[in-house]
Records
---
Amino acid sequence: MEPFFVRYRNILVFLAILLAQIIGLAVQVRRTESGRSSADAGDGSGVRLIRLWADGLVTPPERMFHASKLGAGSLWQDYLNLRHVREQNQDLQKTIDRLRLEQASLLEDAKQGQRLQGLLDFQQKYIYKTLAVQAIGSSGSDQSRVFYIDKGADYKLERDMAVITADGIVGKVREVFPHTAQVLAINDQTSGAGVILETTRIRGILRGNAAGRPQIVGILADQRIQPGEKVLTAGGDQIFPRGLAVGVVEKVIRDPERDSFINVIVKPAAQLDRLDEVLVITSTAQRFSPDQQQDLAISEDQKGAEVEAIKEQKEASEIMAERLPGLTDPNAPQAAPGAASTSGPGQAGQQAPNPATPVAASPAPKLMSPRHSDRFTPGAAEEAAPSAVPEDKPKPKQPSPKPESKPKSKANSKADQPSTPRRNP
Amino acid sequence: MPVLGPNYRRDLEIHRYPILVYALVPLAALVLQAWLPWVLRGYAWFDLPLVITVYFALARRNPIQGTLLGAGLGIFQDGLTHHAIGVNGIAKTVVGFLAASVGVRIDVENHTIRLVLIFLFSLTCSAIFVFIYRILLGMDLEWSWLAELMRAVGNTLIATVLFPLLDRAQIKD
């Protein structure tokens, strides 16, 4: 008769391996304070060792595949497919010029914003330093939306560093290995990023669903949330800096588990399924980075004068529009009964009713008096006639041919030229 | 039924492969499983380690080897994800054991039978995965059975090509 262990060795080995894995699972998964189980609270040393082995086994061939793919791609892109490169270069140069212009014009606002934030003691953090890395592979499972990047502890990457592209956020570093790192994408079910809707200012937590689409969960039903609204990072999660693009609202669906709540499906700004190169934010600070400052200085130097000229031109046009006579002032208070309805030029500010002035039967459109009237101003000619102004009323000041007080800014002096034409009779 | 065991000698025939095949094919399956979804941009409805586990379990007809191969590949797969180590390991351990046990009893030389088996084992593996995640561990996991069905079909299609290729690597007596 065969011994028991020999006869049932298959099933015994099977059960032993199964039991060992179940015990291993029980050790890894812990119950959180909310009563739910979680395996994401940091790996133990044994588990980390297995991940390290798996990473060491899989990533070298992946790197090789990726390098060969990049090599073939760059051979084609850099040496063979060079049609329209010159035109593209010119277009890009124009775009840079335009962006520098915009940047210089926004610089003052940014500086003012920083000053105000300093006054309010608000700790705004800017992306100070980033590291460009290549995405080389995935976990290979739909249930685990993580991917691997080609730099790790050797480049001082750390857990929970934000990973972004120029388009928007991508995820965060979850595990760091000697030469690689694992990134948890924002469309994974276990991910979480604090986000805010740009217009409605509604905050929520972004995480993925079963189909791998990011969604904002735990929001009370709100009719204001419409497709197309931008979603930004809220900055409260201590991972993503505030104000980074996340995506746009794609649609709003009811939370299947809670009636009064909705889930907002978000179309991610970054193409999460087409990532090649991503940026890891290695440090944030409360000031602009040297690169950014240098860029701003260039913009200021190169385009500052142009921006100033545009600004002056804008101010001049505003002043000119202000000086031109308008029909009615929409902000003016309703005229009191008995008030002069036909106030001539030079009577600005004379709101008190004048008993000597004839009261019009119907309210006529009130002419707004210009700030600096001249002889071309409508009504100036009538002022010369003594009947136009009652005798007992002090005569309005005759407009001088030159402005009484010279404008201080260049813009104003420029603006004066068209409004006061020097024309000899 | 000719399929279910007409020839006892053939049923007991154990296929043998060069040692390099045992070493490189599972490794290639792991690497490609991690790399191809990245290249195919999300259209990766397959599970190459599962296909390899089922193939060797059916071919070797040894439950212990099937169990060990499934456990090893599953644990390494778990190592690449951010899930707890052992979820895939348990699922593939069970599948490896079942495939080898089935391989002892039915004629797995028939290619159609093997394709039907890989389809069924794919669904079994998915079911075990959900069971472990939701019941055993009590963790939240949204699930799409349509995706799992697509994966089972994908595995079957890959097996259609891969099994005959691997059969060519057998050591002939």
Note: The first strand of chain A starts at residue 30 and ends at 31.
---
Amino acid sequence: MTSTHWPLVEVAARLLERDEREAVLGDLLETGEGGWRGLLDVLGLVVRRQILHWRSWRPWLAVFGLALPGSLLLMGFSVSISSIYERLVDRRILIGSPHPIHEAFFQLLCRGLLLIGGSWACGFVMGSMSRRTLWVSIASSCFPCLFCLVRFREPSLSRLCLFLFLLPAIWGVRQALRLTRLNLTFAIFLAIAITTLTILPTNSRGVWALNWTLVWPAWYIVATAQGDGRKAGQS
Amino acid sequence: MLGEFEYLLITAAAGLGDKAYGAAIREEMEVTTGRRCSIGALYTTIDRLETKGLLKTWMSDATPQRGGRAKRMVRVTSKGVQAAKNFYDAITRVSRGASWVVNRTGRAS
């Protein structure tokens, strides 16, 4: 194994699971296989493993049912919360507005809670539904973010307002990678809270179909937390 | 029924006995068949056969010869032996009378 290629092989092998990485790198060292050939071998195994993962429905649902629509919706909520906050801070905007301050505050509270709960639930489900393809789900949620970032044309708001959902979502993903099970009582409480907040008239005038993107992950968490001894999010 | 590659892998692993692990099986298959065996094909097939209960694998202790890396040891189960035997019998039966078999044994067709 040439010294220049070995670091590349090791980087590629990071995409494999720990035991398999150990075995494969050991095999390559033992046989002294050439650098490029070893690299192609490792990449070939990585591709085969990924193909096997994508034969399940879970990664597809994580990408097309959660990462893509969820990030779009949560960015919308982020901007909406920022607008309400701006109205509250700058009371001149509220003068002449049909909405009194306490109503705007209530809206801010409801949407803020929904944003935190929904983002956390989306992150948790994304992390637990298909851990081995999590990087694809994360990359998929970056596309709508970049699209909206480029097209954002609201002069009174910072572009960072689009990404208020990121912190709770990252927190959810981290929790999913650490926890094997979630407390059922907490899961039910979270699901009921998110569903209630979603159908509140302050959050949606009529229940918009895309809003259910925030609701189903919460109930998925309930479903995976149900069985005693069952691990959430194995793929 | 087993596939050709699966049969070769089980046979190589069974032949190596206690010394059957990834690199050794791969070398044995390459020497026997004269064809290159990719690591991807080897390890995904090992996984598939283990899922079917035809192989059992475990990680050995790390050895200095391999840069301190562990080996993935392989043992053929009794179910695996039976599956390989069934494959061999089927191939033997279906090959009776085939021209290449007849020519090799020197019998007239």
Note: The first helix of chain B runs from residue 4 to 16.
